[in-house]
Amino acid sequence: MILKVGTFNVLNLALPDVPYYPDERPYSVAEFDRKATWIGEQLRRMGAHVVGFQEVFAEAALREVCERSGVFAGATVAAPGADGASGPRVGLVTKLPLAEPVTSISDFPPGVTAPVDGIGLPVGTFSRPVLRARIAVTPTLTVTVFVVHLKSKRPITDPAAPEHDPREEALGKARSLIRRTAEAAALRFLVLDEIVGNTRPAIVLGDLNDGPRAVSTEIVTGDNPSRFWPSGRELRAAYWDRVLYSAHEIQARNIGRDVSYSHIFNSHYENLDHILVSQEFYDRNPARLGELSNLRHFNDHLVDNQLSDDRPDRTTSDHAQLVAEIDLRS
Q1: What is the pLDDT of residue 311?
Q2: Is the pTM of this model over 0.85?
Q3: What are the C-alpha distances in Å from 9 to residues 23, 115, 169, 303?
Q4: Which of 52, 105, 262, 299 qualifies as a FRET site for 117, CA 20 to 30 Å off?
Q5: Are 318 and 304 a contacting pair, CB within 8 Å?
Q6: Domain spans in the chain, listed from the N-terminal domain onward
Q7: How does pLDDT run across 202-212, given as a tens digit for each residue?
Q8: In this structure, which CATH number among 3.40.50.300, 3.60.120.10, 3.60.10.10, 3.40.1280.10 belongs to the domain 2-327?
Q9: Between 231 and 127, whose confidence is greater?
Q10: How many other C-beta atoms are found inside a 10 Å radius of the C-beta of residue 195?
């Protein structure tokens, strides 16, 4: 079996004539129709068994686009808290059965905010709650999937500060970074609770709003052990049990180059969207249950506004869609 899992930032998926941000006009019926049709077509192209979504404002809208895709008949669709009025949430659609109901996690797990040397993380909740689902891939294999959307790089600024003030812009980016790294640490705690001391695979699907080698991303994945550690294989095995591996980096290593991107901003081509897998799906693990064999980027719709006169269209998305193919036949 080839298990296909994807991540899809749908860019403000809200119902028509329903406000979603104060400074954005609601979608008209015609705009929503175009957006739902486009998302449905992308879902058909992706051909995934499981897809995690970001920026879902209404679960009803997510159900509509999944239905339009024509490939998720009878599938489970969930977007906890996406009631049209509570801001953007993450969601999930799966053709495979759930082993238990999905869980929405808003609060950081215990221990994340513990101060050291008088310094603690001044954040205790996720800006967008994390969705956790345990999916029965086969009768003998259950996979834990986390759908996430960490804080963006958009500055958190003081509304009373002058607009375009460079000092406030600097502080705003610092505040966003603090929140994003705090959320990354909290997500890491949730992942560790799932993967340490067992052979149950875990997959993280989502928009981490930073690149594969960014500190916040490395907080989520954890560190690989050094082959030169004198403690030997036992300590290295303990590290391998808790590391997540980036599908992006596995793909780049396998093909010998990195030409991918999932987002363009001011001519900066970045990989903000990620699929991370535990060691059970890592090709260098001799005891693996499967291996990541391919990662696809659906990014033809992205526009470089420094090079093109085309304007971004809010009825599509400003992110690429990713699909990881995991070969379970081994």
Answers
A1: 77
A2: yes
A3: 20, 34, 26, 16
A4: 105
A5: no
A6: 2-327
A7: 999 999 999 99
A8: 3.60.10.10
A9: 127
A10: 20
